[in-house]
Automatic annotation (TrEMBL):
It comes from Longimonas halophila. The keyword Hydrolase applies. PROSITE patterns: GTP_CYCLOHYDROL_1_1 (PS00859), GTP_CYCLOHYDROL_1_2 (PS00860). GO terms for cellular component: cytoplasm. This is GTP cyclohydrolase 1. Keywords: GTP-binding, Hydrolase, Metal-binding, Nucleotide-binding, One-carbon metabolism, Zinc. It is an enzyme of class 3 (hydrolase). InterPro entries: GTP-CH-I_C/QueF, GTP-CH-I_N, GTP_CycHdrlase_I, GTP_CycHdrlase_I_CS, GTP_CycHdrlase_I_dom.
Amino acid sequence: MAEKKIVTDDIVENGTVVGDYPTHYERRDMYDAETTRDVADHVASIIQKLGEDPEREGLVKTPERVAKAYQFLTQGYAQDPKAILRQAMFEETYNEIILVKDIEVYSLCEHHMLPFFGKAHVAYIPDGHIVGLSKIPRTVEVFARRLQVQERLTLQIREAIDEVLKPQGAAVVIEAQHLCMMMRGVEKQNSCTTTSAVSGAFRNHSTRDEFMRLVRS
Ligand SMILES: Nc1nc2c(ncn2[C@@H]2O[C@H](COP(=O)(O)OP(=O)(O)OP(=O)(O)O)[C@@H](O)[C@H]2O)c(=O)[nH]1
Ligand SMILES: [Zn+2]
C-alpha cells in the first residue's frame, strides 16, 4: 500500500497517520503540510516586520492559523465548478425562471487580499436540463474562494452555468461590501457594489425585469 502523505488535519502517532480530524469540507488535502509550513514562515516574518513578537504566547500559533485560513479561503482553485454542476443534471421540460437568491458570498479582493462579502442571486431558464439546487451555491463558492474582483466573480458564475446547462439564459447579480473600502482607503462604511451578468433570454427586457422583480420580492 502506498505510504499516506501527512497533511495537517491528519492524526499522527509515532510518525504514522492513524486517522484524520473531521472537517466539514470534502477536501481532506486542503491543508497541505508543506504549504502550511511555507506560508506560516512568511506570516511570521510579516508579524515581525509589523513590530510584533511572533514568539509571544498569543501569536505563537498565529502563522499556522493564518496559513490554514488562507488555504481555506482560496480552496476554489483546486475545485472544478463544471464537474460540480454535472453531478446533478436532470432532464426536465420546465422552462420558466429558476432563481436561487440571497446566497451568502465571502471572497477576497485580489488587490488587497481583504474580504468582500454580500449576496449572490443566480437564475437560469432551462432548455431541457435542470440542475440540483444546491449545486448553484456550490458553484458560487468555488469561484468566491479565490482572489477575485466582484465583476469577474459574477461573470464566471454565469459562464459556468451557460457552458454546462446550456440554458435559454442565465443571470447573476452580486451585491457586496468591500472591506478594502471600509476599513482603509476611502473608508466608506455604507457603500454597496452591485454587479450583474446576463445571457440569452435574460437580455430581453421583460425577462430581465421579471428576474429583478423576483430578486427584490
Ligand atoms: N473593479 C473592482 N475594483 C475593486 C474590487 N475590489 C477592490 N477594488 C479596487 O481596486 C482598486 C485598487 O486601486 P489602487 O489605486 O491600485 O490601490 P490603492 O492605492 O490601495 O487604492 P485605494 O483603495 O483607493 O486606496 C481600488 O480602487 C479598490 O477599491 C473589485 O472587486 N472590483
Ligand atoms: Zn481591495
